[in-house]
Design brief:
Strand order of the largest sheet: 5-4-1-6-7
Strand content: 5-15%
Largest sheet: 5 strands, parallel
Distance between the termini: 13 Å
Radius of gyration: 17 Å
Number of strands: 7
Shape: globular
Helix content: 40-55%
């Protein structure tokens, strides 16, 4: 990682901790039998892709879950609780690091997300940190359901590069998904695959030496 002027951050398991096992257990409790195939780190039912690309509304997502499980009596609250069980929170020090990095680099957020998670996280940021979103931490934020594109498709990376006049070789992309990293590398972007117990605070401590 040399000559870095720009950093594109993923959100889940880079900045905001996720727990896929907890999420899978929650889906099983609702009646999903193949939870590891239904929603996991590298595999997911097509409804989640549609939801993240803005091609399915929250209402359509919930109705799909009811039909998938075969339980029309499931409430919105029950479905949202199971879905949001994936979301753990932000480790102390992450926001402070990101604010510091913003003074040293051009920083961007690129997240595959959906309306239910987005609403939950915005409320979480407000309640826990009195933040009105993430806009003050990054030069620009890209949420998949709002831009209509998602990783690992090249189009969303190209949009970030082109809209902000970023040179790929001067740009670092940090993500926890190998398939997302692979697309960025094909575009000439420098990459770092975040895998536990790695975290951004350790990474940038090492970079600074």
């Amino acid at each position: 990682m040399e000559n870095i002027k720009n950093i594109i951050f993923d959100y889940g398991n880079v900045i905001f901790t996720l727990d896929f096992v907890k999420s899978q257990q929650a889906w099983e409790e609702l009646g999903i039998n193949n939870s590891t195939e239904f929603y996991a780190h590298k595999v997911q039912d097509p409804i989640f892709t549609a939801f993240e690309e803005g091609n399915a509304t929250s209402e359509e997502f919930r109705e799909y879950i009811r039909q998938k499980i075969g339980n029309p009596k499931l409430t919105d609250a029950q479905i949202d609780k199971a879905w949001n069980s994936l979301l753990v929170g932000i480790a102390p020090g992450n926001h402070e690091l990101l604010l510091d990095l913003k003074t040293r680099y051009r920083t961007f957020l690129l997240s595959n997300i959906n309306p239910i998670h987005y609403y939950y996280i915005m409320n979480y940021l407000d309640k826990e940190f009195s933040f009105k979103g993430n806009d003050h931490i990054f030069e620009k934020t890209y949420y998949s359901h709002l831009v209509g594109k998602r990783k690992p498709n090249a189009e969303i990376f190209e949009q970030v590069l082109n809209e902000n006049n970023l040179i790929p070789t001067e740009t670092l992309f940090i993500d926890d998904s190998p398939q997302h990293i692979a697309t960025a590398q094909k575009l000439g972007i420098q990459t770092y695959l975040m895998t536990a117990p790695d975290n951004i605070q350790k990474l940038f401590a090492e970079i600074r030496g």
